[in-house]
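dumping these here so i dont lose them again. two proteins, back to back, each one seq then structure tokens. dont judge the mess
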Amino acid sequence: ITLIDRSQPRGCTLACIHLDGGLAADLASRRSAETRRLVLSQRRLPGPLPPGLARWFPALEVLDVSGTGLAALGSELLSLPRLHTLLAKNNRLGGPGSLPKGLAEAPLLGRSLRVLNLSGNRFAELPAALLGLRGLQSLSLGSNRLHSIPPEIQELRSLEFLYLGGNFITSIPPELASLPSLSYLVLCDNKIQSVPPQLAQLHSLRSLSLHNNLLTYLPREILNLVHLEELSLRGNPLVVRFVRDLTYNPPSLQELAGRTIKSRNVSYTPGDLPGNLLRYLHLASNCPNPKCGGVYFDSCVRQIKFVDFCGKYRLPLMHYLCSPECSSPCSSASQSSTSQSESDSEDEAIVAAHRMQKVLLG
């Protein structure tokens, strides 16, 4: 166990403690009001953090208990008033009682904790207590047993770094797009089949890691990620085989009427129509085909189109057209990964090289 005193020059250690006696006794004998970093990693801890830790090290800011075999952190964690970084990787956390009760409501830790790394543990779901840590800027839960991301993830408004790679996640909730400061999102090595178009609202996103998933296409809206510098897609079906799935259901009479009203700019007032029809008309989406100008509600053509991100890689992006007739005359030519359609060129013009500095496919 190494105790580092940040008031001394970098690398200066207060003591090296050998666990030949009781852990609590050893720590108590080396107590220091100046110690800011405590590393207990790569040692076997018999139980939760020992009582008295906060009293012995009141200035503690960084605590590393990675690889110690911990199955529970214990309530002593809540008494560390200045802790901003907790590293608890490669342990046995994940069962009932792994995290102390009242973690999110802790008056001191709830405000101070900024970095939390619980990768390499046994969490089957993202603990609800973590979603109350509103000051978190970095959260890592890679290589656990997660199957989903709860919509409540949007409560972590300060989050800048989210690592959930190496789990069993099958979908990305649209609520993830509500994180205004998220810059690095790692979802590699999961079972994700699609990317919600709402992710384009992550205007601060700089790096998106989606390699080794089950993606066959990307949403067209991903072009709106104006600050994205790195996009990792290797190990997905879209890289090794390009899938096109054109589907179209005939529009209902309600949709046909709605399309006519919107496309011909038929005037109406709120008093002319029932409330449900007014709400329906507000849901109209504009067809992205610049030659069409039509609208659609529920029925549309689902089409994949290849777009050049960096002048080297052509990726299939999903977009929606209001009907099969509004497709570009050259769209059939874009079935080949080496050909270009007129509409492809229009999308490529949107994407500047500096906006996609890295596209990692292989």
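---- next one ----
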Amino acid sequence: MNASSFANNTQLCYSINSPPFRPIPNASAYFSSIFSALGLTSNFIAFVVLLKSFQRTHSGSRTFFMIFLGGLVVTDFMGLLVTGSIVVSYHITHFNWRNLDPNCHLCNFMGMSMVFYGLCPLMLGAAMAIERFIGINHPFAHSTSMPKSRTVFMVLMVWLIAGCIALLPLIGIGSYHMQIPGSWCFFNISSKGNDFAFSLIFSLLGLMSITVSFLLNTVSIVTLIKVCCRQGKNQRRRDDEIEMMVQLILIMVIASNCCVPTKVFIAQTVLSGRPLQIKYLLLWLRFATFNQILDPWVYILFRRAILKRVAPRLDWSRNSIVSLSSFGDTVRRFTRSSLRSTMNQETAGDRRKSNLPPPSP
């Protein structure tokens, strides 16, 4: 009777893994604290740098890109602040989730935060790729029909979509549960029922965002190279576009290496029907944490002002790309002119030896 009443009183989030859990060594507390502090500091520095650059910039396309970057930095900062504070608090105090959160409100909130901040960086990367694709391939339409308010609206829409997806388990599509070792909550990764549907939504949406970013960035790079290498008096400088594309490519590469393994692992687990291996899930989630730490350093370090200080002898402008692309043509022209002058000198020497008059022009 007591067992049945205990089962009836058990909330959904504690139905799979029920606290209290065995305390784990302090190494986990140090690991979580160091990573959270490093990520928060990096994102704060990036936000200050972005704010100063935003006040100085006068380029429309750069302003749009910096608004997206600002949204990405704020998202990463809040993600580390929300989830990191809960995880670090548990490792320090080892509180009992049942006593602190008997109705699963905190567990559901953390699960929603994990889903929200796990999707937002990838979706913002796709939105940035779309903005750069339009800005490079259709610059006139981009500059005339995309005000700053629309860019802010796109960032808010990404947050809204990710928030709606995070709310799906609260209406029955999926469910949030306590996860081992008891310091965090996440949705139930299972091949049964609504948990299967939500797991696929989470993983496929992240993979789709990466795919869109890869395809659009590839087209933008090809277009940008063609425009930069085109000669002409009316060719406008593309230094800002090159800098933005370099930063966007690095953001995409970091997201692919850090976040894609988690999405692929979840999709493989639910599609194969195998039981969840929590140790691999924890490993890939730690990889995903690096995305929030490395993203801000892309903008902090990979700017022309910083690159010129690091390597002042190199030319970090469009002219360097044009010169690199036309290096082969320059060598061929120089070789042809050298051979032509050598042949003319030899012909003139032969004429002098034979006392022949020079040819008429």
